[in-house]
Design a protein that fits this description.
single chain, about 325 residues, mainly alpha, Hypothetical protein af1432, three-stranded antiparallel β-sheet, two-stranded antiparallel sheet, 15 helices, 5 strands
Length: about 325
C-alpha cells in the first residue's frame, strides 16, 4: 500500500467494500482511512486487479468502506453499472446500500434514455438495471421501502419511470403471485419504459403549469403508442413489457387510451400498472399540483376516480402498501 494521501476528506466519498468485485480491476484510485488523526491513504491505483484475498484482508482489519475521489465519480459509477448484478448478489452488501445503488443507477440511466431514446446501448443499460432492481427486491424483504424512502418528491419523468417499475415489480409479486425472475424482469422493463414515448413530447407541454388544451392533450395521448414503436425499433419488447407500455392509461370503465379497452379486456398486469402509475404521479410534486401524501392519494383514487381502476386490485394495492407507506396506524 502506498502512503500517498488525500489532504482533505471532502475530496473523497465512501463506498461499500462489496462494490469492488473480485476478478475485476479498480476503475479509479481507491483510498482507505488510516491513522490517528485519520488520513485518506491510497490503497489501490486505477487499473489494479482486485481479488478475494485483498477483500478478506480488509475485512480482517475491520475495513468496511473504501473511498473514491469526487473527481472520479463518473468512472466509479460506470464501473458500478457494468457490475451491478454481481454487486447486488454479493452477500457482503447491506440491503439499504444495495437499494441506493439500484435507485441512483437506474435514475442515471433513465436520464440518458430520455435524452437519447433510440440508443441501443441505452436500452441494454436499462435492461441491466431492471435486472438488478428485480434481484434486490427478490433478495431483500424491505427493498421496496428502502427505495421508496429515497424516491424523488419532485416529478421528473425519468424518476417516475423508476418508481413505477419498482412498485410494479413488488406489487406483482404480492398481489399477483408472480415470483419467476424472468417474468419480473419483463414487468420491470415495462414499468421502466412505460413513459418513454414522452421523450417525443415537447417540454412545454409536459411541464405546462396550467390545463392542457385539446390539441396538447391529444399530443400527450400519443405517448403509449409512440413508446411501443420507439422501443420496438431498437429491440423487440416481450408481450408483457409491451402491454404495460401500451396500456398503462387504459381505464377499467373504458374511458382510457389508446385503445379504449375496459374491464377484463385489460390484462391484470396492465390494470395494476395503471394503479401504480397514478399513485406515483399523485404523490410527487408536479408543475400543476403539489404532492399528496400517500393516504390522500389513495383516498382520492378510491373515492374520486374509482371507475378508472379494477376495484379489487386497488384495494389490494392499499393493503400491500400498508401503514408503513400510507402513514396510518395499523
Amino acid at each position: 500500500m502506498t502512503t500517498q494521501a488525500v489532504e482533505a476528506s471532502s475530496e473523497v466519498f465512501p463506498i461499500p467494500l462489496a462494490i469492488m468485485q473480485p476478478g475485476t480491476v479498480a476503475p479509479v484510485n481507491i483510498y482507505i482511512r488510516i491513522g490517528r488523526p485519520p488520513v485518506m491513504s491510497l490503497y489501490k491505483t486505477a487499473q489494479t486487479p482486485l481479488s478475494e484475498e485483498v477483500r478478506e484482508r480488509l475485512l480482517e482489519r475491520g475495513v468496511s468502506e473504501l473511498y473514491v475521489r469526487r473527481e472520479d465519480e463518473g468512472h466509479y459509477l460506470d464501473y458500478v453499472e457494468r457490475n451491478i448484478e454481481d454487486i447486488i448478489r454479493d452477500e457482503l452488501l447491506p440491503a439499504e446500500q444495495a437499494c441506493r445503488l439500484v435507485y441512483k443507477g437506474s435514475s442515471r440511466v433513465m436520464i440518458d434514455v430520455f435524452e437519447n431514446p433510440r440508443s441501443g446501448r441505452n436500452m441494454k443499460r436499462v435492461q441491466k438495471m431492471v435486472g438488478a432492481m428485480v434481484l434486490s427486491i427478490m433478495k431483500h424483504h424491505d427493498a421496496l421501502w428502502h427505495i421508496a424512502a429515497m424516491a424523488a418528491h419532485d416529478y421528473y419523468t425519468y424518476t417516475h419511470c423508476v418508481n413505477v417499475s419498482v412498485f410494479l415489480v413488488a406489487a406483482s409479486r404480492e398481489l399477483l403471485g408472480i415470483e419467476d425472475e424472468k417474468s419480473l424482469r419483463r414487468i420491470g422493463l415495462g414499468g421502466m419504459l412505460h413513459d418513454i414515448g414522452k421523450s417525443q413530447v415537447p417540454d412545454e407541454i409536459l411541464n405546462k403549469p396550467g390545463k392542457l388544451d385539446a390539441e396538447e392533450f391529444d399530443r400527450i395521448k400519443e405517448h403509449p403508442l409512440v413508446g411501443v414503436e420507439l422501443v420496438n425499433g431498437i429491440t423487440k419488447l416481450s408481450r408483457v413489457s409491451e402491454g404495460i407500455v401500451r396500456g398503462h392509461h387504459e381505464h377499467f370503465d373504458g374511458s382510457g387510451y389508446p385503445d379504449g379497452l375496459s374491464g377484463e379486456r385489460i390484462g391484470r398486469l396492465v390494470r395494476l400498472s395503471t394503479i401504480v402509475d397514478v399513485y406515483d404521479a399523485l404523490t410527487t410534486r408536479r408543475a400543476y399540483a403539489d404532492a399528496r401524501k400517500p393516504f390522500e392519494a389513495l383516498e382520492l383514487m378510491l373515492t374520486k376516480m374509482p371507475e378508472q381502476f379494477d376495484r379489487t386490485l386497488l384495494e389490494g394495492f392499499v393493503r400491500f402498501l400498508g401503514p408503513r407507506e400510507v402513514g396510518v396506524e395499523a
